[in-house]
Amino acid sequence: MTSASRPAYETSTTRDLFALGVTSFAGVLLATVAIFQILEGIAAIAKDEVYVNGVKYAYKLDITTWGWVHLVIGVIGLITGIAILAGQAWGRLLGIFVAFIGILANFAFIPHYPVWSIVVIAFWILTIWALCTQLDDE
């Protein structure tokens, strides 16, 4: 069987397959964390009693406002994750930016829901790592 008649996955190098796997992982992770952000935003918008409201700190916003912030970040992140899975190169850079904004938003949201915010920050960091490993391949 000649290389021209072989399927693409048989002629790919291990590095190419690894890159494809990491890119897919990054896209799925970005979309998953974005869904977490959307759910967090909906919970804050729909029912303010879900989160602690009496904390005084430097980044004080109304819980409903925080809900809209998380919802917007989540929707943009979900669209970006889908773009990465579709193979759009711009999705990787936008994904890093969205993850960075997500980290900042969750850091500022820590007083309202500390454990969840830290978990989401960890997932955003993992997303940035996965996307940055692919920048060399572009």
UniProtKB/TrEMBL annotation:
Signal peptide as annotated in the record: none
Keyword Ligase: no
Residues covered by the DUF7144 domain: 23-134
Alphabetized InterPro entries for the sequence: DUF7144 (IPR055568)
Transmembrane segments: 20-46, 66-86, 93-109, 115-132
Source organism superkingdom: Bacteria
Keyword Nuclease in record: no
Keywords from the named record: Membrane, Transmembrane, Transmembrane helix
Protein name in the entry: DUF7144 domain-containing protein
Annotated source species: Nocardioides panacihumi
